Amino acid sequence: MLDVKNSTEYEKVAQQVYQAILATTEVETIEVLHNVQITGRSGVAHQIDVYWRYLKDGIEHQVLVECKYYQSKIDLIHARNLLGLLTDIPNSQGVLLTTVGFQRGVVNLCKFYGISLKRLRDPQGSDWDGFIQKVEIEGILNKTDYVDFSLAIDGKDAESVATLAGDNTISIDSLEMLFQDGAVSPVPAVTWLDRNVPFDESQVGKPLSITLTPASTYIVLQSGQRVKIHTLDVQYVHSSRTLNFSFDAMDLVRGVLEDFNTKAIEHTLHH
């Protein structure tokens, strides 16, 4: 939501919108200022709510944005005032920006003189017509905590025998342990256990144990050598909890810049 309390805050949001638009425009230099004084050909200084100045293809462009934070339609006097600014400030374009809309005379005058009419408004549900606006997901997170485990080495495996031969100082730290099934990439011990210890929803919260006898699983030592696991005794506890997640795209959008005549959305300002 725009969440503005007065005209000044509304003008600053408009400045943010045009800064975001210009960030994607191919221009050589960009300047977006709020509440500036611009002197016209008459020598009179004019207050401009949002002043957009840029250089493109060697030509300087100026856009004067007049912001009207009103709860009713804008009347003709504001369009006439902006037309006067455009007359006194050469090579400039005008944008009349408001929250609600414009009276018929304003629309006709601005169309004739090429003044753009825009609405900077709160997002609304119809902005997502044809798109997904809200998503609600409910799921269950199952988790296994491993209390303890112990393992026996396959003393008949040739690779293990070669790794351990004549070395009685080799120790295995379960916290640093990597398991490797055959030639696939090694994974942390807990990851391997999650893949091989079955989850039983009927046993949630109960202390459980299992003996695994993997066909071809090795412990990978820090040296890169391997020893084969014969059996693995695991003590563990299952836990489970329900997760609820909801998402509303409207919560991500602060404001919408809309062309008043075509109703086309030109930019969405995100939080």
Structural account:
This protein has 5 helices and 13 strands. With 271 residues, it is an alpha+beta fold. It folds into 2 domains: 115 residues, Trna Endonuclease, Chain: A, domain 1 (3-Layer(aba) Sandwich); 108 residues, no CATH class. The chain starts with 6 loop residues before the first helix and ends with a strand.
Task: Characterize the biggest β-sheet.
Answer: 7 strands, mixed
Shape: elongated
Largest sheet, spatial ordering of strands = 1-2-3-4-5-12-13
CATH class of the largest domain: Alpha Beta
Indicate the structural class: alpha+beta
Mean pLDDT: 91
Estimate the strand proportion.
Answer: 35-45%
Tell me roughly what share of residues is in helical segments. 10-25%
* Unreliable sequence segments: none
Q: Termini, distance in Å?
A: 9 Å
> In CATH terms, what is the fold-level topology of the largest domain?
Trna Endonuclease, Chain: A, domain 1
Give the total of domains: 2
Tally the beta strands: 13
List the helices and strands and how they pair.
Layout lengths: L6 H16 L6 E11 L5 E12 L2 E10 L7 H13 L3 E7 L5 H10 L2 E6 L12 E20 L4 H7 L13 E4 L5 E2 H8 L10 E6 L4 E4 L5 E23 L4 E7 L5 E6 L1
Parallel strand pairs: 3-4, 4-5
Antiparallel strand pairs: 1-2, 2-3, 5-12, 6-11, 7-8, 7-10, 9-11, 10-11, 12-13
Summarize the model shown:
By secondary structure, the protein is α+β, with helices and mostly antiparallel strands.
Provide tags for this entry:
seven-stranded mixed beta sheet, 271 residues, Trna Endonuclease, Chain: A, domain 1, 13 strands
